């Protein structure tokens, strides 16, 4: 991976940080996209110390804001003449319904639309840098989600795990449609289930959520274990020609039937384009 440029969102902790660390070990230049500057600098310093790789950059952005995503993409394009790997990993899990500065339900905005918009804004550079890879971190939680195209922003009957599952279902459908559209460009797009990982996801929901998460920690995978398939998809020659697939533990898996609905993938794509104001 020497000379390769890897962009990874949600990289200050958890699976994102662990994946960044392993990519740094390969000699790649790794850009950590983070929301909090202090945590980002801590992650950068730890990765540099652990790997000896000084080519670890920090990019700050709040991915709940479409204006911030546009600014981030502009900064990436200004800084890097090539992009070889884009890992969309940042995500949230909210107990109660909130909306972003753009008026969009937060989980849907961060977990799906941020993937969609940032990929769109960087796609031309990825194609020019090919071969290139896009990796979307999804989850088997997609099996709990359904798509109600009349209420994608969950204004009625908000249930935390159903909403989170919906966003992960969107990740897989987005990956399928993206792979279809970029076929022949030299870019591949795949998604994955990292497993049940002990991270800080959901800790923003109060003391009870932190207590539950800490109690479950002994039964969950480490961030390093969760990042293994991410790094595999980003680096392995075994999957250099594979696109549009869902992986777990380095193996291609069949997602739920709802995640294989190509008509739903096309419809979600169009709605996402309208919500982000982009034209592909």
List the helices and strands and how they pair.
Elements: E1 5-9, H1 14-25, E2 29-34, H2 37-51, E3 56-60, H3 66-79, E4 85-88, H4 106-128, E5 132-137, H5 160-182, E6 187-193, H6 207-216, H7 223-235, E7 246-248, E8 251-253, H8 262-276
Parallel strand pairs: 1-2, 1-4, 2-3, 4-5, 5-6, 6-7
Antiparallel strand pairs: 7-8
Describe what you observe in this structure:
The protein has 280 residues and is of the alpha/beta class. The chain has one domain: 3-Layer(aba) Sandwich (Rossmann fold), CATH 3.40.50. The protein has eight helices and eight strands, in the order E-H-E-H-E-H-E-H-E-H-E-H-H-E-E-H. Strands 3-2-1-4-5-6-7-8 form an eight-stranded mixed beta sheet, sandwiched between helices. Helix 5 links the parallel strand 5 and strand 6. The longest helix is centred in the middle third of the chain and has 23 residues. The chain is globular. The protein starts with a strand and ends with a helix. About 8% of the residues have low confidence.
Give a short overview.
The protein is built from 8 helices and 8 strands, in the order βαβαβαβαβαβααββα.
Total DSSP helices = 8
Overall geometry = globular
Radius of gyration: 17 Å
Distance between the termini: 30 Å
The CATH class name reads: Alpha Beta
Placed side by side, the strands forming the largest sheet appear as 3-2-1-4-5-6-7-8
Percent helix: 40-55%
What are the main properties of this structure?
280 residues, alpha/beta, Rossmann fold, 8-stranded mixed beta sheet, 8 helices, globular
């Amino acid at each position: 991976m020497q000379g390769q440029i890897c962009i990874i969102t949600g990289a200050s902790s958890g699976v994102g940080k662990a994946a960044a660390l392993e990519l740094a070990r390969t000699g790649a230049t790794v850009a950590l996209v983070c929301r909090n500057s202090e945590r980002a600098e801590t992650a950068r310093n730890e990765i540099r110390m652990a790997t000896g790789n000084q080519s670890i950059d920090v990019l700050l952005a709040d991915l709940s804001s479409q204006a911030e995503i546009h600014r981030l993409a502009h900064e990436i394009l200004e800084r890097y003449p090539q992009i070889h790997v884009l890992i969309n990993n940042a995500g949230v899990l909210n107990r109660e319904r909130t909306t972003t500065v753009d008026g969009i339900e937060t989980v849907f905005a961060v977990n799906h639309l941020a993937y969609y918009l940032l990929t769109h804004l960087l796609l031309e550079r990825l194609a020019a840098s090919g071969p290139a890879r896009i990796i979307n971190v999804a989850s088997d939680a997609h099996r709990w989600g359904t798509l109600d195209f009349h209420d994608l922003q969950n204004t009625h009957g908000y249930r935390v795990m159903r909403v989170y599952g919906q966003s992960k279902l969107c990740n897989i459908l987005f990956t399928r449609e993206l792979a279809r559209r970029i076929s022949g460009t030299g870019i591949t797009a795949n998604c994955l289930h990292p497993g049940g990982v002990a991270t800080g996801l959901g800790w923003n929901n109060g003391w009870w959520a932190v207590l539950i998460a800490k109690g479950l920690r002994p039964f969950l995978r480490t961030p390093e274990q969760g990042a293994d398939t991410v790094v595999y998809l980003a680096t392995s020659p075994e999957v250099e020609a594979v696109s549009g697939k869902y992986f777990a533990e380095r193996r291609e898996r069949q997602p739920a039937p709802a995640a294989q609905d190509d008509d739903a993938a096309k419809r979600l794509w169009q709605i996402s384009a309208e919500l982000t104001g982009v034209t592909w």
